[in-house]
């Protein structure tokens, strides 16, 4: 009895002890460059990436975009004059391709002005994978009538999937002038019966309107980078270095949520649950312009530059090419840097072997289809590292876009 | 058994932290009388070596001087074979830099245990850099004590696993001189001598120990040996101011030790080890560890009636530089990558550089570090009665400071076909930093006796201010301030005069390094439970303990010894981990004839650990861990049987140690995932012949059956255990 009481007392004491909160209290004060054991500072890394990787891509895009404005205007003039339309259209198509691919470099580094408020500004310029071919046809008709549901037509109020670069791709590359809607209704009633010249003129008018709106948005985007005391360029280069590293680091995740998941994953049926339920070949990006592979190529190249600090004149392993690989090495995680670089290099090599465009490969299930699957797997090797070791080693926050996916 | 003075015994007793009242006395007669008092012996012979049942909770083990002399081991790994609940990763075969853990705690460089010499923290920098690159030479120790469970709460800062205390020789009461010389395989040599005396109130001891060996490995294309040379000198002086029943004395301990060893982190590929396990690649011919260690320690002991207080002032300085092959430069595979897969297209040329069969460049890294550990600590004991209950109060405070200065540099060497190695460039400094800690520790513990029940409750406080500074960038620093209270409670219930049960629970804690910014990350903490049964009826004694360590966050840190490519000293979080196990130790002595005894002991440990969640970690021993995975380098079962025959003028002893298989990484996706170290059984034999009461000769054979297995694939590549080793020795004691 005595033993039982004693053991009970011990047990109660033990339980009490285990419940006692003896939490450690730790406070700390870190130096401004705490944790960095490199020959460069965080600021030098940020400045290099912004000045030598990001801004040149902005410049390349704005140049291409201006050339596109001219080409589209010339094309529409040719349509109006019904003279040398095909030649003008080819020039406009090439200008669009240049602009679109230049945009793919911007896409791969979506910093705050484009990414804030759930990518609002980015979507105004390019909303993919939100696209609506039929919607574009309806907008062409609405824009022509100048009203929507009895209200004056305002392009800025219209849905993002019906305008922007997607609408331009559709209008410039879709064969024929017939609409893409399953049911001809509303403003489109009678469209297919219109004279070819009329349809071309109306489409071109909308194309120009979209270009103008794009110009406004591109200008707004560039102004947010360059103008005023609150210019984003100043903020990212001169503001809190940790925040800037976090922002640039999160930009790398385009490789995950867009390239891996939507551009490749959805058409391969290995994407997230939010993939569209349409035909798989229909989910391929830039299917009208058949620029899907080139877009992926640009995305990978830009990722490689942002990650390694490579530029047009510096190789990634150059001492002056400061990138996240150098940062990882500085914090002792060279292995993660090496794995990511190798995965992206492998993916680029695989992409170079592919001849068929993505939609054709899906429809024919040819040998390139397997290459696309390999490409997806190789990119996943890199994104797995991003979501685990990369964010841990560099204290980068996992972006919401890559949280809770199906990896 | 050496002759022990009353003063030094009392000091040593206090040093090991047993604060029951000390009954040293002024006269030799009384000393003798007290020496024969069992309570007196209890203070240093904690478990299994006395004729009474120890009645404090908490698992403890003592390896006594007599046990240590049985096998004359130089290697702490072998000595701890008879202590249950110890997990060890062997490395060099001689135990130069042991990797010891208790109850599943990571054994890497013994950094998770509180390592002490004479009750004072002896790791180079116990708070700032606890990895024990310095480990006292156990050949000169007279006892090894292990404290686990609630018994460890008095010995911080690391309380998750426990504490290991090495007890040095006491100043003898009468003139005492001894010499031990030995010679063995691979040019092994040992000279161990001491002399001491006590005249009136003044006593002294001088002790020296020198050991060497050429090593049991051979380096390709090189005449360089792979052995070591260690020297150790210790001097003690004490003076007794005691008057009547008041005891009052001081002791000064001065010690110096040095080591030069041609040790490397470079192992072999599995294939090469299978052909010749004792080979070393040509690239390791310049690898060498050099260190110096000095100690100054002043101890004061005071006792009046039931009160005693021991105060120690100590300073340890340690400097080391270890040059060793560290890799091939940037954007190249790690050494372990190459040695795990030497025939791949990418790795083949690197493997050939290591082996000297191809030319190319490799990097020799020298990790030059200096440490200081200093402080003052007081431990007091007080026995009293209160409301009819007997109390034994122990309390202590320690003001401690330690630091590590790192000046790591690298040099590029070229390897030519045929193993010629030449230096190509000057030093490039890599890591240059300092980690420093100032710590205040306090503990108080009360042991209450209520009839057959002995209840012990205590709490320990650790208050640590630390600073990390990057020597190459003044803006890279971290100041940190950590505070924690660690409670413990245990009880022993005497069921009979000869046996009883005990149980306890305590909070485990391991502070993080000053370089880690863990303001928002939980430190390594655990709640540790144990229940046990202890018996001692003079013929047989033993202890069986079940334990359960519930880690709320298991932490590990990166070191070069783990063949890692992680940031040096970076911390990794393993989250919730459960470790449970059983420890048992039974010992007895059978009288076969009036002049022939057969001592035997059995030590068994069972350990099972489980991560409680899945995660991915950069820690080289974890990787992609799934819930339910177990920690690396933990054999499920280990068993040691010692037995022998002891006559009047001769003795033979045999130790057989079985270690179950161990995995080398917890999860998948890292080097050595799914790689196992095979189970192995090692037999060690010793035989002594006592020429006279003063002289003896001995023969010992380590690894009697010449079992050659892979003992570890870390730091970089597979490495064998020590092969069969013969040693003959002669001892004289005057």
UniProtKB/TrEMBL annotation, chain A:
Residues 55-375 form the Imelysin-like domain. This is Peptidase M75, Imelysin. InterPro entries: Imelysin-like, Imelysin-like_IPPA, Imelysin_sf. Keywords: Signal. Residues 1-23 form the signal peptide. GO terms for cellular component: cell envelope. It is found in: Cell envelope.
UniProtKB/TrEMBL annotation, chain B:
It is a multi-pass membrane protein. It is found in: Cell outer membrane. Its main location: membrane. The keyword Signal applies. GO terms for biological process: siderophore-iron import into cell. Keywords: Cell outer membrane, Membrane, Receptor, Signal, TonB box, Transmembrane, Transmembrane beta strand, Transport. Belongs to the TonB-dependent receptor family. This is TonB-dependent receptor. It comes from Catenovulum agarivorans DS-2.
């Amino acid at each position: 009895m005595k033993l039982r009481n004693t053991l009970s007392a011990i047990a109660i004491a033990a339980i009490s002890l285990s419940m006692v909160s003896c939490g450690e209290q730790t406070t700390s004060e870190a130096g401004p460059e705490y944790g960095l054991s490199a020959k460069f500072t965080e600021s030098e890394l940020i400045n290099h990436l912004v000045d030598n990787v990001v801004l040149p891509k902005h410049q390349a895009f704005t140049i291409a975009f201006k050339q596109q404005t001219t080409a589209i205007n010339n094309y529409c003039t040719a349509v109006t004059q019904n003279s040398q339309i095909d030649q003008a259209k080819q020039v406009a198509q090439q200008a669009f391709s240049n602009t679109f691919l230049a945009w793919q470099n911007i896409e791969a580094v979506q910093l705050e002005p484009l990414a804030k408020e759930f990518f609002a500004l980015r979507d105004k310029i390019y909303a993919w994978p939100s696209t609506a071919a039929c919607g574009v046809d309806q907008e062409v008709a609405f824009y022509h009538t100048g009203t929507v549901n009895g209200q004056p037509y305002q392009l800025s109020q219209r849905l993002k999937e019906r305008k922007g670069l997607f609408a331009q791709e559709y209008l410039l590359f879709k064969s024929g002038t017939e609409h893409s809607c399953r049911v001809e209704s509303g403003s489109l009633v009678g469209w297919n019966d219109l004279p070819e010249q009329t349809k071309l003129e109306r489409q071109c008018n909308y194309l120009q309107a979209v270009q103008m709106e794009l110009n406004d948005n591109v200008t707004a985007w560039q102004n947010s980078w360059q103008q005023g005391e609150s210019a984003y360029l100043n903020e990212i280069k001169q503001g809190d270095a940790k925040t800037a590293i976090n922002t640039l680091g999160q930009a790398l995740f385009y490789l995950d949520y867009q390239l891996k998941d939507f551009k490749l994953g959805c058409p391969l049926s290995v994407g997230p649950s939010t993939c569209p339920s349409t035909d798989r070949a229909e989910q391929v990006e830039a299917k009208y312009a058949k620029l899907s592979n080139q877009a992926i190529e640009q995305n990978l190249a830009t990722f490689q530059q942002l990650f390694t600090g490579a530029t047009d004149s510096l190789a990634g392993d150059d001492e002056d090419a400061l990138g996240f690989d150098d940062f990882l090495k500085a914090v002792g995680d060279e292995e993660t840097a090496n794995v990511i670089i190798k995965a992206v290099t492998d993916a680029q090599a695989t992409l170079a072997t592919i001849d068929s465009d993505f939609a054709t490969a899906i429809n024919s299930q040819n040998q390139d289809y397997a290459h696309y699957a390999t490409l997806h797997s190789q990119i996943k090797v890199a994104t797995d590292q991003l979501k685990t070791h990369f964010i841990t080693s560099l204290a980068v926050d996992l972006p919401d876009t890559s949280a809770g996916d199906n990896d | 058994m050496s002759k022990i003075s009353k003063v030094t015994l009392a000091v040593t007793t206090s040093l090991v932290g047993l604060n029951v009242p000390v009954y040293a006395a002024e006269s030799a007669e009384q000393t003798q009388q007290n020496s024969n008092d069992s309570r007196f012996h209890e203070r240093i012979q904690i478990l299994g070596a006395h004729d009474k049942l120890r009645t404090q909770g908490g698992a403890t083990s003592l390896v006594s001087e007599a046990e240590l002399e049985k096998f004359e081991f130089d290697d702490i790994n072998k000595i701890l074979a008879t202590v249950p609940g110890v997990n060890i990763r062997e490395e060099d075969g001689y135990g130069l830099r042991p990797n010891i853990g208790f109850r599943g705690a990571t054994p890497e460089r013994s950094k998770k245990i509180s390592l002490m010499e004479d009750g004072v923290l002896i790791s180079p920098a116990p708070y700032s850099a606890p990895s024990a690159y310095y480990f006292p030479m156990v050949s000169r120790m007279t006892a090894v004590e292990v404290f686990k469970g609630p018994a460890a709460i008095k010995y911080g800062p690391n309380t998750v696993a426990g504490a290991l205390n090495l007890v040095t020789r006491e100043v003898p009461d009468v003139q005492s001189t001894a010499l031990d010389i030995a010679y063995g395989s691979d040019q092994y040599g040992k000279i161990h001598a001491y002399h001491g005396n006590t005249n009136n109130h003044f006593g002294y001891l001088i002790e020296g120990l020198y050991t060497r060996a050429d090593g049991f490995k051979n380096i390709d294309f090189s005449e360089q040996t792979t052995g070591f040379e260690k020297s150790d000198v210790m001097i003690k002086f004490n003076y007794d101011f005691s008057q009547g029943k008041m005891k009052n004395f001081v002791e000064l301990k001065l010690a110096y030790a040095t080591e030069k060893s041609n040790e490397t982190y470079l192992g072999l590929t599995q294939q090469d080890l299978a052909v010749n396990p004792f080979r070393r690649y040509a690239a390791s011919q310049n690898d060498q560890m050099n260190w110096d260690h000095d100690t100054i320690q002043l101890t004061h002991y005071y006792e009046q009636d039931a009160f005693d207080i021991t105060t120690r002032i100590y300073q340890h300085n340690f400097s080391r530089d270890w040059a060793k092959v560290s890799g091939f430069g940037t954007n190249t595979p790690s050494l372990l990558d190459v040695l795990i897969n030497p025939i791949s297209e990418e790795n083949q040329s690197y493997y050939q550089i290591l082996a000297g069969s191809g030319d190319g460049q490799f990097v020799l890294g020298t990790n030059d570090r200096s440490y200081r550990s200093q402080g003052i600590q007081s431990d007091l004991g007080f026995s009293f009665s209160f409301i009819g209950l007997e109390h034994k109060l122990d309390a202590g405070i320690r003001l401690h400071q330690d630091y590590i200065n790192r000046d790591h540099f690298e040099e590029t060497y070229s390897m030519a076909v045929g193993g010629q190695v030449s230096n190509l460039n000057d030093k490039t400094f890599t890591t240059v930093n300092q980690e420093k800690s100032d710590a205040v520790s306090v503990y108080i513990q009360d042991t209450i006796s209520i009839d057959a029940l002995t209840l012990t409750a205590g709490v320990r406080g650790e208050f640590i201010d630390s600073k990390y500074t990057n020597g190459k960038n003044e803006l890279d620093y971290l100041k940190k301030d950590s505070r924690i209270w660690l409670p413990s409670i245990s009880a022993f219930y005497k069921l009979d005069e000869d046996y009883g049960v005990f149980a306890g629970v305590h909070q485990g804690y391991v502070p993080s390094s000053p370089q880690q910014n863990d303001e928002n990350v939980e430190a390594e903490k655990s709640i540790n439970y144990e229940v046990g049964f202890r018996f001692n009826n003079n013929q047989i004694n033993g202890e069986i303990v079940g334990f359960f360590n519930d880690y709320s966050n298991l932490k590990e840190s990166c070191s070069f010894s783990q063949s890692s490519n992680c940031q040096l000293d970076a911390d990794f979080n393993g989250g919730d981990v459960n470790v449970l196990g059983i420890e048992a130790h039974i010992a007895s002595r059978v009288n076969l004839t009036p002049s022939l005894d057969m001592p035997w002991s059995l030590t068994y440990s069972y350990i099972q650990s489980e991560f409680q969640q899945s995660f991915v970690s950069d820690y080289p021993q974890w990787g992609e861990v799934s819930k339910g995975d177990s920690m690396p380098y933990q054999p499920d079962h280990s068993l040691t049987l010692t037995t022998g025959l002891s006559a009047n003028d001769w003795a033979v002893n045999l130790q057989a140690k079985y270690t179950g298989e161990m995995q080398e990484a917890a999860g998948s996706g890292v080097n050595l995932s799914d790689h196992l170290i095979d189970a192995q059984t090692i037999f060690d034999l010793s035989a002594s012949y006592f020429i006279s009461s003063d002289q003896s000769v001995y023969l010992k054979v380590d690894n009697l059956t010449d079992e050659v297995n892979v003992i570890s694939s870390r730091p970089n590549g597979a490495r064998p255990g020590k092969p069969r080793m013969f040693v003959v020795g002669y001892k004289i004691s005057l």
